[in-house]
Amino acid sequence: MRLDKFLKISRIIKRRAVAKQIADQGRITINGKVAKSASKVAVDDQLVLNFGNKVLTVKVLDLKDTTKKKEATELYEVISEEYLENYDM
Q: Could you read off the pLDDT of 50-73 as tens digits, one per residue?
């Protein structure tokens, strides 16, 4: 499954266009490698997302084409969530 689609379906990022933009800026890695929006995501992959003021690390648990809001969190496990104090916009 494409990275941008997974991020939207899992509701880690609410809109696919935003997921594409963040990925294409080089702010997401899959298993330690910089990923683009079209990069493939598989079960057990580790994603690190740099939102600017926060770094989120998740492990992919499942892939589905569609999901309900309350089931979205079952697609991934949060490994760490780090807030950056000295972030300047």
A: 988 899 999 999 999 999 999 999
CATH class of 3-83: alpha beta
Neighbours of 32 (CB within 10 A): 7
Q: Where are the domains of the chain?
A: 3-83
38 within 8 A of 57, measured Cβ to Cβ: no
Cα 5 to Cα 23: distance, rounded to the nearest angstrom: 11
Q: Which residues of the chain are modeled with pLDDT < 50?
A: none
Q: Is the Cβ–Cβ distance between 57 and 78 less than 8 Å? A: yes
Residue with tokens 């780090």: 82
Measure the CA–CA gap between 53 and 69, rounded to whole angstroms.
Answer: 25
Radius of gyration of the CA atoms of the chain, in A: 12
